[in-house]
Write a structure and sequence with these properties.
2 helices; mainly alpha; 37% helix; 83 residues; two-stranded antiparallel sheet; elongated
């Protein structure tokens, strides 16, 4: 499901940023992005020589802005433009 205009009626309504919609939509997408990244990084056999044990690879926190970079784009374009 998508919109015919991603600015008006999607990320903005009458010029107002649709915070609830945008955050809920991007959170769902970011959750999927994080899950796929975790699936790619989950290689326990390759970690058998990782020491100290506190450096367990799955404990690494990704740059949260990288999970939904488009959210910052939406905020950066409050007016309808070439974006």
């Amino acid at each position: 499901m998508t919109a015919s205009n991603y600015h008006d009626g999607w990320t903005y309504q009458g010029g107002a940023f649709e915070q609830w919609f945008n955050q809920s939509w991007s959170s769902g997408l970011a959750d999927d992005t994080l899950r796929r990244a975790s699936d790619r990084a989950t290689t326990p056999l390759a970690w058998k020589n990782t020491l100290p044990l506190a450096e367990y690879p799955m404990r690494g926190t990704p740059d949260l802005k990288s999970l939904a970079p488009y959210y910052a784009d939406w905020l950066a374009h409050p007016s309808y433009d070439e974006y």
